[in-house]
Amino acid sequence: MTFLMERQQDSYLRALAEYFSAIAAPYPQPVQTQASPTALQRGQELVLNGDPQRSIPACRSCHGEQLMGVLPATPALLGLSPDYLIAQLGGWQNGTRRALAPDCMASIVRALSSEDIHAVTAWLAAQEVPVEAHPQTGFKNDPPVRCGSIEAARE
Questions:
Q1: What is the DSSP letter of 131?
Q2: Which of 17, 54, 56, 143 has the highest CB neighbour number within 10 Å of its CB?
Q3: Among 2.60.40.10, 2.120.10.30, 2.40.128.50, 1.10.760.10, what is the CATH number of 39-154?
Q4: Is there a contact between 153 and 72 (Cβ–Cβ < 8 Å)?
Q5: How confident is the model at residue 142 (pLDDT cuts 50, 70, 90)?
Q6: How many angstroms separate the CA atoms of 39 and 43, rounded?
Q7: How many angstroms separate the Cα of 57 from the Cα of each of 26, 30, 35, 92, 114?
Q8: Residue 31, φ and ψ in degrees, nearest 5
Q9: What pLDDT digit, counting tens, does each position of 2-56 carry?
Q10: By the 8 A CB rule, do 154 and 139 touch?
Q11: 151 versus 106: which is more confidently predicted?
Q12: Phi and psi, residue 74, nearest 5°
């Protein structure tokens, strides 16, 4: 996919993005989790409040109050399977997934323990997507971390 996409013009990529962003596909039902109540509580805490002691921002501070993303560059976190979420976070953690420098997600995910990652993904996957959920159209405040992808999208 990378080989194909990196050879396309920006106007074509924008047209693709606009087309797919206009599709309102139904979201799957939340996943029944095997996570313990303690793990789910930890996941909820990290998603909603972060861990200031470890300089980990809340997921919602960058991914939107409803966790449905912030246009144009921050994706939604709800409606995704735990396997997909773990794979993406694992990619950030081991460097197979990257963003424009400064790569804020890589920095954040590397500060998380494997227990934190499992707690966050279990909690997120167990949440129902709000009926009228849509990405935010901008940040109310600047994100708590400097992120190259967000900065590039603002240009």
A1: T
A2: 56
A3: 1.10.760.10
A4: yes
A5: confident
A6: 6
A7: 29, 24, 22, 16, 17
A8: -85, 135
A9: 898 889 999 999 999 899 888 888 888 999 999 999 999 999 999 999 999 999 9
A10: no
A11: 106
A12: -110, 120
Compute CA distances 24 → 19, 32, 84, whole Å.
Answer: 11, 24, 20
Q: Hunting for tokens 């793990």 — which residue is that?
A: 39
* Contact assessment for residue 117 and residue 86, using Cβ atoms and an 8 Å cutoff: yes
Number of other CB atoms surrounding residue 23 within 10 Å = 6
- The owner of tokens 């460097």 is 95
Q: Can you name the residues that pair with 70 across neighbouring β-strands?
A: 74, 136
Query: Token pair for residue 100?
Result: 């424009």
Instruction: Identify the three-state secondary structure at position 124.
Output: helix
The residue whose two tokens read 């246009």 is 71
Q: Two tokens at 18? A: 């606009």
CA 101/CA 17 separation, integer angstroms: 22
Which residue type is seen at 26? P
Rounded CA separation 127/142 (Å): 26
150-155 contacts: CB < 8 A, separation 24 or more?
150/62, 150/73, 150/74, 150/104, 151/100, 152/73, 152/100, 153/72, 153/73
